[in-house]
Write a structure and sequence with these properties.
The chain is mostly helical and 745 residues long. It has a domain of 137 residues: Serine Threonine Protein Phosphatase 5, Tetratricopeptide repeat (Alpha Horseshoe). Helices cover 51% and strands 10% of the residues. It is built from 28 helices and 15 strands. It has a 3-stranded antiparallel beta sheet, with helices on one face. Strands 4-8-7 form a 3-stranded antiparallel beta sheet. Strands 13-14-15 form a 3-stranded antiparallel beta sheet. The protein is globular and about 95 Å long. One of its GO terms (cellular component) is nucleus. It catalyses: L-lysyl-[protein] + S-adenosyl-L-methionine = N(6)-methyl-L-lysyl-[protein] + S-adenosyl-L-homocysteine + H(+).
């Protein structure tokens, strides 16, 4: 997803293996990004291969999302009957994306989506889709039913005057044109009478609590003004060190929960969702709902009433304003590149979008930096020297400073020492070029070269204002910039996540999980160094990231963030391996140091216990009871085999729960519990999961007291593994609150 599709990677790696050794050495030992890019781009002799792969990826994607009008109408009706309103809305949205404007097809799709939005309680969005259906020529014979829906939305929203006018118009329509069948007319008249009574007594609704809470979080400002890092609070300061690089420290004592950073993504790219394998679709039309159907492709706001791009069938937005902003900033270039960008992956997409957004900033100093890199080579061809001279002329500023690089005190800061979330800060993030394998650098360079070739052929790329037009090789400079961004992203990309609720609305207790929604660049958050036991937590509202203190932080302490490998989720050896392979450093945080000197029993949430005395087992291949008075021993392989069998049984119980068979699920889970007591620690993660499953099963039966008892036991295991202030603990506490509320416990 982040990197190119497997077919393109296989082609590039095969091409690399067939290159003469001398060329491999030249690219492998290249000292600058410009050398890597220019040498690799010369090897893209033919554009045919990437075109063929792009065509296959595009056809596969189109087959996944393209839905003809008849299919849409038929399956929207099926979804409506089965109360699958989100699926109905997404189907209708796909129909809208592929229908011509001002036709019956698109108007019917808007009307179908308005029905889904109505049943989902999104009445404002429903009204907008009703208006769009009418604007595109919704058939007059179908108007009464849709107008009744409009009136009901207005009544629900407390807009009684508009509702009364709509009801009056409906009554006039019935009197003037009695074209409906008698039975249908009677149903509509009954609903109309009910609605009239409702309109007379309906009071204006107050804002719902979740909406109010979200708005409050969005409007929350940073504490104090930070003149050095505008996206951070006054409680932190930027420092630099030869070993640690740039980092943030506390300027005073910080309390848990304090907001430290609030930053908009410089750019973000929505993940397209899971793609089905090429040529192996389950059916003619794949109607699975993905991120692209539910979130705005610019601001990442959740919406079912998406507004599609007029030029392509992929990009969708939450409003016309968002669509126009995206078009002005980058989508006017990206619109025709959908298939290629899907082929090259999210990192290439972010790299392109970053350079496109840079066109609207003062990028002259960045251009000088790029040109300086091209010039400062041991061997510089006359053509490249000409390119450098062309790009460094007329870049603005005073004449005596032309062509000079004025280095700020800290990389990424301006001349006043201010570190802002702009392209200058993005450009100075480290690409770690020498740490990437030669094959990976070649893959990234050839991918960017293919993108540049397409941009040049389409004539749709307009470089930054600082680059003089008419320079034949100007795209090479931005190609080098894009290559730098692709390499930067392995260490500096931030996964933008959201909380996804699972289960239907009928469930009394809902589960939630954190899912990856998009990838973005946040220059200020990139300043935070890693710890396997961080003192902050990061969360997202759309494409805005917030960093809060998760514990008390003393004055002078470093502000630390977890890059993914957390001590509550994996052992030190696994964390070290992941950090070394992706981020190119060996972690020496307090958590790793403490684990090195701890007993070799492993994490408590993975521990086995003695079947005789219940003490924890210790050892490697052969486990020995930790109690000095017990001589019990057992092979680790035997216990792992038992654990796998138990996990299968728990999986079967969860399947019974999904199939609405809670009684049978409880019987199976209680048996699993008895088995677990003979060899698993009471704090083992699977023990906690079984308690959580039992809580769900008893909640389904309405036995709130037993459900709460099991959930409280699950909380104890979650706290041991993830900590008392973790997101996971918050999810479990929220479920417990739902139980107490529903059962009035």
């Amino acid at each position: 997803m982040d990197l190119p599709v497997d077919e393109w990677k296989s082609y590039v790696f095969q091409k690399w293996s067939l290159l003469p050794k001398s060329i491999q050495v030249t690219i492998s030992t290249a000292e600058t990004l410009s050398d890597i890019f220019l040498h690799s781009s010369l090897l893209l002799h033919t554009y045919i291969r990437i075109q063929k792969i792009t065509t296959r990826v595009s056809l596969n994607f189109i087959q996944r999302i393209f839905i003809d009008h008849l299919f849409c109408v038929r399956h929207c009706a099926i979804c409506l009957v089965n109360k699958k309103y989100i699926n109905e809305g997404c189907l209708a949205g796909s129909g809208i994306s592929h229908s011509r404007p001002h036709t019956a097809d698109i108007s019917l799709c808007y009307a179908n989506r308005s029905a889904a939005l109505f049943h989902l309680g999104q009445h404002e969005m429903c009204l907008k889709d009703i208006m769009r259906a009418q604007m595109h020529g919704y058939p007059e014979r179908l108007q009464p039913k849709m107008m009744l829906r409009k009136a009901e939305c207005l009544v629900t929203l407390g807009r009684r005057q508009e509702a009364s006018q709509t009801i009056s118009d409906l009554e006039s329509s019935f009197a003037a044109k009695p074209t409906l069948a008698a039975a249908q007319f009677q149903i509509l008249q009954t609903n109309l009478c009910r609605l009239k009574m409702k309109a007379q007594e309906k009071e204006s609704l107050t804002e719902t609590f979740p909406a109010a809470l979200t708005k409050a979080l969005e409007d929350m400002d940073l504490k104090g003004e930070n003149g050095q890092v505008p996206s951070a609070s006054s409680s932190v300061s930027l420092r630099t060190d030869p070993l640690r690089g740039r980092y943030l420290v506390a300027t005073k004592d910080i309390l848990p929960g304090e907001l430290l950073v609030k930053e908009d993504a410089f750019v973000s790219v929505l993940h397209p969702g899971e793609m089905p394998p090429l040529r192996h679709l389950e059916s003619k039309w794949d109607t699975r709902v993905t991120n692209g159907d539910l979130y705005c492709h610019r601001c990442l706001d959740h919406t079912l009433a998406t507004v599609p791009c007029d030029g392509c069938s992929y990009a969708k937005y939450c409003s016309h304003d968002c669509m126009q902003q995206a078009w002005d900033l980058y989508h006017s270039v990206e619109c025709s590149l959908g298939g290629l960008l899907l082929t090259l992956g999210v990192f290439c997409h972010i790299a392109l979008r970053s350079t496109l957004v840079a066109r609207f900033e003062d990028a002259s100093k960045v251009i000088r930096k790029l040109c300086s890199e091209i010039r400062n080579r041991d061997t510089c061809s006359p053509e490249r020297e000409t390119l450098v001279q062309t790009l460094t002329c007329d870049l603005g500023g005073e004449s005596e400073n032309k062509g000079k690089m004025l280095e700020p005190p800290v990389p990424g800061c301006d001349l006043n020492g201010k570190y802002e979330s702009n392209y200058n800060a993005v450009f100075h993030l480290l690409p770690h070029t020498g740490n990437h394998s030669p094959e990976h650098r070649f893959l990234c360079a050839l991918s960017v070269s293919a993108l540049c070739r397409r941009l040049e052929a389409a004539g749709c790329y307009k470089p930054a204002a600082a680059v003089p037009p008419g320079s034949g090789s100007e795209l090479d400079v931005w190609g080098v910039a894009m290559l730098k961004h692709v390499l930067q992203l392995q260490c500096n990309a931030q996964a933008i996540t959201t909380i996804q609720h699972t289960g239907s609305k009928e469930n009394s207790v809902t589960n939630s999980r954190q899912v990856r929604l998009a990838t973005g660049i946040f220059p200020v958050i990139s300043l935070l160094n890693h710890s396997c036991s961080p003192n902050t937590s990061v969360s997202f509202i759309s494409n805005v990231a917030t960093v809060r203190a998760s514990q008390q932080i003393g004055k002078g302490q470093e502000i630390l963030h977890c890059y993914g490998p957390h001590q509550s989720r994996m052992r030190a050896a696994e964390r070290q391996q992941k950090l070394r392979s992706q981020y190119f450093f060996d972690c020496s945080c307090a958590a790793c140091q403490n684990e090195k000197h701890s007993a070799a029993t492993g994490p408590r949430w993975e521990a086995f216990c003695c079947r005789s005395c219940g003490a924890l087992m210790q050892g490697d291949d052969v486990l020995i009871c930790g109690s000095t008075s017990c001589t019990e021993s057992v092979s680790r392989d035997h216990l792992i085999s038992r654990l796998q069998d138990l996990q299968q049984q728990v999986g079967m119980a969860r399947k019974l729960l999904r199939n609405d068979k809670p009684e049978r699920a409880i019987q199976l889970l209680l048996g699993c519990q008895r088995d677990a007591q003979s060899f698993l620690s009471g704090e083992h993660s699977l023990v906690g999961e079984m308690e959580d499953d039992l809580a769900q099963a008893y909640a389904a039966l309405g036995d709130w007291q037993k459900s709460a008892t099991h959930l409280q036991k699950s909380l104890q295991v979650v706290e041991v593994r993830h900590g008392p202030s973790s997101v996971e603990m918050g999810h479990e506490l929220f479920k417990l609150a739902q139980l107490f509320f529903n059962g009035q416990v």
